């Protein structure tokens, strides 16, 4: 466990030392700040726009950070030959990979913490309502999504070169909602074989939009009449199902990565 | 290597080393199987074509929508390929310590940069050609479009590649690779939004003209994009407008390349 | 060699310093989006199956705003956008249903929600050259304004315009059946994944009544869209329309400011001058409003094909707008300066066009001194 933690800490320290993470977070915060400073026709109480922009930037910036960070962990170790002294120590490859994963997830948590602090401060400043339960669930599900993306990036980086792994990871992330709606929409249009293929795609590929509660968080508002929220927090069984769903994909991708990593000649 | 002698290479002696470096970069790109990225983008086009085939195209406006989407993605992806290729050149050479042997040969730093710039532009043009086969050739053409507008759009894209490659090489001398790629992507794809945002914020204030001038230093890649004009059935732009856009690309490329050579000559490798 | 390098460096620096001249010059030479800018094209492409599959993914800001408007007014719920402004203008209905694959028809379908018997695709194709009988719609200021609004907005937008953030439409739309993009449980083949999607994404059973929410939340998007693309004329028009609909003087003045920014960026977009006229009338600044309507009429006549026939750059919506600009100019001229002045202006406009039936009718009315033009009583209808 201590070895896992040490490796994770080195990933986080390296990410922070290279300052990339800071700059991405700062650039994103700059964008959020710029949006906050715009006077939208002296209208008060406009909050959906701010929430949508902020949550979108938060999600995209963290996902890209995770994909890039995770995808380059293993290739860089091989390229710089720093993996040899590490593995010469009594550290198993499972521990090594787990440490890397934990490090990437800590970096994701670091990003979300910074973003959240600014987002919540902005929400308070603008005096706009936020459904706290939905927001907490949004963050939790985003972290599960990052876990899936990180393990997927590990796997891709072992299957292809670094640029291709990053590109494919980013493209899959960017187009996952299109993929999900395409499969759902065209199901009625295809024959029996096509239906099987679409069903297989639905089951075998992680449906990343399921981890994105941002739309409900954005559009949740107190209705003037009655005072109830337009959208409420998800119930516990749904959250449990989503957790299990993400965990399955993360475990499969991690397992496959480990398999390839073990077979990779040093 | 003397930094001064390498600053501005004489035209005749410089051409061959530049071509050699460019060739080496292209070969390295192929050797490292970086066409995987291209294959990924092509896969997206194939998926799009398959979906269009399945759901059909209801009316000419939808046909134009698909054509516009296809061409826009061609442009975005080939710009991305150019950016990734150029931004990687110097950092990778430095990391792999392969720059020293290259510069030990009778190749000046200026020639080295020019070769890498040329190769990056070539890779972009190649990517655009391949993308067009996937994104434009099979796309429906159900309304009236002007071929000359398309030609102008493509020429301006090549001009955009020149600017992107030069800017990427310059910024790669200051900024870590991954960060550079992210920042460049923001500039290439969102600069007109940023410029519009800044100008609109300053509109009506005493700073309006100053901000308009200062934002002129941010490269605005929307001036090189005529895709929507083509798919919207707009006639070719006039000679003056077209030339002005090319001149804009030439000026930006020259400035960025000159700055890159200047910085590279003073940098310890 | 050193000297050459120094000269080259100095030249590059000088080039850099003066380089903003080029983009500044280029910003005055914008290239329009052609037929892609038309409302009909936007509706058709965004309601297509291919566009629905893409969700909110769009390559141009106009389409992105189009989709965003739909989502925001329904609390984020993604309904199938089979929108037809003209159909809505005429019937108050939105025809929205999942397009069905070939072979799916009334004889094979058992789904009661499917409307097989009226696949009406109105194309907003009423022929203005022969619309003599339809003159009630253009003979009063209020009617002209309604016509412009209908060309610019959807029924849903007009309904939501008066709502404040947090308010929802109080009545149920029992006459609508609008399918959601996310499938209902009965139609979903994806099992638990479909279930999770319906839980995670904003979704309501499409059979339940719709509740629309305030459109003011969209205003920042219009502001940002016009900031990033100052040539997005429709963004200025709809943004100003939302603001004017707030019906407070402060917001109407903001609407005026916004539309004037649009005019500064697009001086030849006659619709912007028309909207400016409407806003000024709302502010009771009739003399300035008249100037704006006349400017809109002048610019529009110059852009209109002499016969008013539709083409890639001239749509039926353009024709509606120019009709409004011309007739409003004439009506206000009549109300402020008298019948003779209005007749002179009307004849002057008429001389610049081959055909323009609405104006012919108004001229005939003005030529009969004892008879009040139809709708005269409404001529001063407040917008």
Describe, in short, the structure shown.
By secondary structure, chain A is an all-alpha fold.
Q: What structural category do the secondary elements of chain B indicate?
A: mainly alpha
Mass-distribution shape of chain B: globular
- Biggest sheet architecture of chain A: none
User: How many helices of chain A in DSSP terms?
Assistant: 10
The secondary-structure class of chain A comes to mainly alpha
Number of strands of chain A: 0
What gyration radius of chain A follows from the Cα positions, in whole Å?
Answer: 20 Å
Terminal residue distance of chain B: 11 Å
Number of strands of chain B: 0
Helix content of chain A: over 70%
Order of helices and strands of chain A: HHHHHHHHHH
Strand content of chain A: under 5%
Q: Could you please describe the fold and organization of this structure?
A:
Chain A has helices at 2-17, 20-37, 48-79, 83-88, 93-126, 132-159, 162-186, 192-204, 214-219, 236-263. By secondary structure, chain A is an all-alpha fold. Chain A has one domain (2-263). The two termini of chain A are 24 Å apart. Chain B has 269 residues and is mostly helical. Chain B has one domain (10-266). With 383 residues, chain C is mainly alpha-helical. Chain C has a single domain (36-100, 118-378), classed as Tetratricopeptide repeat domain (Serine Threonine Protein Phosphatase 5, Tetratricopeptide repeat, Alpha Horseshoe). Chain C is 52% helix and 0% strand. Chain C contains 17 helices and no strands. In chain C, α12 runs antiparallel to α13 and α15 (316-337) packs antiparallel against α16 (339-351). The chains are: A mainly alpha (266), B mainly alpha (269), C mainly alpha (383). At the B-C interface, α3, α4, α8, α9 and α10 of B face α1, α2, α3, α4 and α10 of C.
